[in-house]
Amino acid sequence: GILVSNHTASKISPTVRPPKFLCNICMERKPLNRSFRPDCCTHLFCSDCVVVHIATKIRENVCTIRCMESGCTSVIELKSCLGILTAEVSDRWAALLSESLIQPADKYYCPFKDCSALLWNDTAEKQAIKEAECPHCHRLFCAQCKVGWHAGIDCREYRRMVSWERSDDAVMKNLANTKKWRRCSKCQVYVEKISGCLQITC
């Protein structure tokens, strides 16, 4: 047989473990290669905790994200996190940062609840634009009143209407009265007589 001397056996080194650090968020010891240190300060966290923290802040529409260390007021920059964030989170953060640069007076949202896209008045002299189209949902709205387009009713008249009259149904009824439209007795859709008899066939 082959004999292995004690001298040869002692040269075989045990497996080297990577250095670890303590994450002050999850309080777990993590490998140093899974750490994240913001450019703004010297605090060290595990990248998993940082990703969850930033994603949560972004979902809350917070674009200024501070260091997670208690008492630290340093602001974490988007560029320092690009290597650990998903494209979706980093894109949303970039969009929030861009939105924060728009002056509140120039910022408004699409009035349709199922859209609510951020819009802004980018006209040079803040002209009185009335009829506008949302570039996201492509529906018309009144840029002065910040509501769906109230065809046949000027802004002054619309503002004088009491709140229940401003509902979409009331605006439609008002327009129907103005245009002398009638409802089909069967399906209740508004119809307009252009020619022919008064008989409505559904």
TrEMBL record:
Catalytically driven reaction(s): [E2 ubiquitin-conjugating enzyme]-S-ubiquitinyl-L-cysteine + [acceptor protein]-L-lysine = [E2 ubiquitin-conjugating enzyme]-L-cysteine + [acceptor protein]-N(6)-ubiquitinyl-L-lysine
GO terms (BP aspect): protein ubiquitination
All copies of domain RING-type, residue ranges: 19-202
Record-linked CDD domains: BRcat_RBR_unk
Cofactor(s) needed by this chain: Zn(2+)
Highest taxon, organism lineage: Eukaryota
EC number: 2.3.2.31
SMART domains per UniProt: IBR
GO molecular function ontology, one term from the record: zinc ion binding
Keywords of this entry: Metal-binding, Repeat, Transferase, Ubl conjugation pathway, Zinc, Zinc-finger
Pfam families: IBR
PANTHER family linked: RBR FAMILY RING FINGER AND IBR DOMAIN-CONTAINING
Protein name: RBR-type E3 ubiquitin transferase
